[in-house]
């Protein structure tokens, strides 16, 4: 085998392995059962938090019947999550959540014996983008 073939193989092999590993993780997350947990706004007064919505899990308002044994498992989750948002929405949603009483839910992929993975944010049962769009449309009318 020539030097150029070995060099090409040495460059391609890690990329292929990384791609397979990433696809495998993505597949597991997509196939894992989903758990929806109620959350509430949390303001840590962190000036460098960026475009994140800081949310604390609210186990008192979470439906524990979603879990296979009908018991909530807070020990498998962090108590506070940062949900990344685009710049245009982060500050607006943070302000709205801290002022208004909304039903905020975090949807997690919940694979067996693995760390839960945060998938999406729901506000009043809708994906946050759809909810914010409707709210801004009503405000404009």
Describe the protein's topology.
Elements: H1 3-31, E1 34-41, E2 52-57, E3 80-84, H2 87-99, E4 104-109, E5 117-123, E6 126-127, H3 128-140
Antiparallel strand pairs: 1-2, 1-4, 2-3, 4-5, 5-6
In short:
With 141 residues, this protein is of the alpha+beta class. It is built from 3 helices and 6 strands.
Explain how this protein is built.
The chain is of the alpha+beta class and 141 residues long. The chain folds into two domains: 1-31; 33-140, no CATH class. The chain is 39% helix and 24% strand. The protein contains three helices and six strands, in the order αβββαβββα. It has helices at residues 3-31, 87-99, 128-140, and strands at residues 34-41, 52-57, 80-84, 104-109, 117-123, 126-127. The longest helix is centred in the first third of the chain and has 29 residues, at 3-31. The N and C termini lie far apart (71 Å).
């Amino acid at each position: 085998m020539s030097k150029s073939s070995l060099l090409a193989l040495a460059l391609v092999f890690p990329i292929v392995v990384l791609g397979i590993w990433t696809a495998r993780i993505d597949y597991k997350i997509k196939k894992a059962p989903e758990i929806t947990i109620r959350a509430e706004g949390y303001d840590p007064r962190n000036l460098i938090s960026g475009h994140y919505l800081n949310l604390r899990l609210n186990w008192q308002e979470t439906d524990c019947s979603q879990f296979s044994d009908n018991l909530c498992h807070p020990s498998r989750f962090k108590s506070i999550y940062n949900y990344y948002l685009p710049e245009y929405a982060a500050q607006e949603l943070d302000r709205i959540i801290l002022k208004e009483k909304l039903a905020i839910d975090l949807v997690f992929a919940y694979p067996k014996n693995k760390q839960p993975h945060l998938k999406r944010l729901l506000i009043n049962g809708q994906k946050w983008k759809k909810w914010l769009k409707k709210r801004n449309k009503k405000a404009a009318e």
